[in-house]
Batch of 2 targets.
Target 1
Amino acid sequence: MSDKPYQDKAVIVTGASSGIGRALALRLADQGAWITLAARDAARLAVLAEECRQRGGKAIAVPTGVTGEAQCKALIERAVAEFGRLDVLINNAGIGATGLLEELPDLTLFKRVMDVNFYGVVYCTYYAVKHLKQTQGRIVNISSLGGKSPLPYNSNYNASKYAVHGFSDSVRMELAQAGVSVTLICPYWVVTEFHERLMDKDGTPRGPQGRAIYSEKTMTADQCAATTLKAAARRKREVLMGPGWLTVWLRIIAPGLVDKITIEMVLKPLVRRAEKTQSKE
Ligand SMILES: NC(=O)c1ccc[n+]([C@@H]2O[C@H](COP(=O)([O-])OP(=O)(O)OC[C@H]3O[C@@H](n4cnc5c(N)ncnc54)[C@H](OP(=O)(O)O)[C@@H]3O)[C@@H](O)[C@H]2O)c1
């Protein structure tokens, strides 16, 4: 494999304005890729595009909300119009919300998570496929270990990522003959803005205290980006990060036991913490 597999490759990155998406864009720029940066925050994208150009890549910023099908279509068309081809689509934009299903005031938040994490992937992929077939390109879906081994208190997020897995595994077979690969990336915790933005059942972001779960050992966005780009270059099916293999393997051989342990070690403490917070308010 070349040491710069993305040189002169046209790549779209959704969710590029922060975290893993931003780190992917910078690494792609270092290799001389032609990058289309998508997210809602136009100002951040413009700054990032300039940074990518300074690092040796070509870059355009295309402000896009991935919950809008028409916006996703326009994103793909704009990227192909600018660079004349599409080699890689990285579906990375994502959000999350926590809380017990029964405590959600209604299902608006649940649907919002599905819209961003699942339908955003579907829309972009649908409009990109015909271009990716021309280049024997690559689809990279940034999922989560939550798409392989779910946690309680996260049903919306887990459901959205499981949906991404089913979609990816199906589309991979459909596109195999055309030479288009689909790589699923399943990170454990990564230091980004994700946990600050993580919403409670009312849609309120956790804010800076969301970062309390990170330690010095937590994977950085750059490390995650490096592993992702290497895996996609090699057309790997799936990458499990952190304790991925262990949790997935345990869930296959003893799902009931894993449920019991998870209820004791994850669900009950979360519920107790939420009750304590509520009683203070
Ligand atoms: N961090 C972790 O621990 C972790 C673990 C496993 C999986 N992941 C996955 O990694 C991916 C990237 O997340 P991250 O950790 O880098 O979090 P992040 O720093 O919060 O970045 C999320 C990105 O998604 C974009 N986004 C959110 N809603 C959007 C929408 N409606 N339309 C377009 N873009 C939207 C955000 O940009 P705008 O706000 O500007 O739109 C931002 O660029 C997500 O799919 C997440 O599920 C993260």
Target 2
Amino acid sequence: MSGIYIHVPFCSSFCIYCDFYSVTECAQRGLYIEALEKEIIRRKDEIKGVPRTIYIGGGTPSLLSSDQLETLVAILRKHFVLDNVEEFTMEVNPDDITPEYASEMFRLGINRVSMGVQSFDDKNLKWMNRRHTSAQAVEAFRVLRRAGFDNISMDLIFGYKRVGVSDEDAFASWVGDIKRMIELRPEHISAYQMSIEPGSILARMKDYQEPSQEYCSECYYKLLDLLEEGGYHHYEVSNFSLPGYHSRHNSSYWERIPYVGFGPAAHSFDGEGRCWNPEDLGEYIAKSATGWGGENMERLTDEEALEEKVMLGLRKISGVSLTEEEYRELRENAEHLAAKGLINLDSDLRHISVPREHLFISDSIIAQII
Ligand code: SF4
């Protein structure tokens, strides 16, 4: 089972917290699609078996016109057997969703939409430099529903405070975001803590101060409480779904199932190592037919593979099972953390997981195991 990831590197403007690779110059969308087909022709044999999931992410894939999207999907159908694809996701921004565009996406066989909403408070959206209002996000959700989508994921962001806003007001706004999300009832919700990524606009905003970890922790556990009460299943540190609607594609990342990523800055994993494409649209277009050499590639040592398995596996609420050999490697650290109550450890099954009350600090717990 393999997954396909397509990176569409265009955005109309940059959100302040984001450091994903994208460009705001959209004139090269046609050349990008031509280059994408060349890359697919060159690398399609890297897909082992038939693809089960496809994820068109970005950037902002919904900046492709209907015709360009149709061409992209036709390229996928031409070069891959898609009969067994059970999940075909496309990321969209609310301001791009019209009834015509949503119907076209549905007609093309896309069966899951991931929409960046981030907040239902217009002041927060403006501060983040999002291009839509809360009302536009709600309307886009309804338009997608009317077009036939019955598997919609929406993103929220927490753990930030605009300058001059008190903890109380910021927290009230966050609780409002969660409640509004539950009212809309998308099948899937992702919620990420805002962090200052080095290449982001936020990193250059001198007057911005991150809120305390106590505040962020309070936001996180409120999220867990309200979504669980609302019937959402918490299956990964930052991801929640109604029963049966977990993301198949993203779950394969945490399970270390191979996938192939196409497009500038896209990463791939073949089960033993990772490679990645250049973060430069011009270079990507120029070299997509020939490749960029072996420099963007790493083979994982056994030790690195185990670190990665634990790091990704412990993001899942269900945790991770280890082989006897792996358990021998980590046993001392795992038993030490289990004695302190920081992990759940079933030594007979060699299974570890992070308890709910420590999920907020799971990164630091993971760092202590490996
Ligand atoms: S968050 Fe999405 S829309 Fe905003 S800059 Fe990043 S990729 Fe583009």
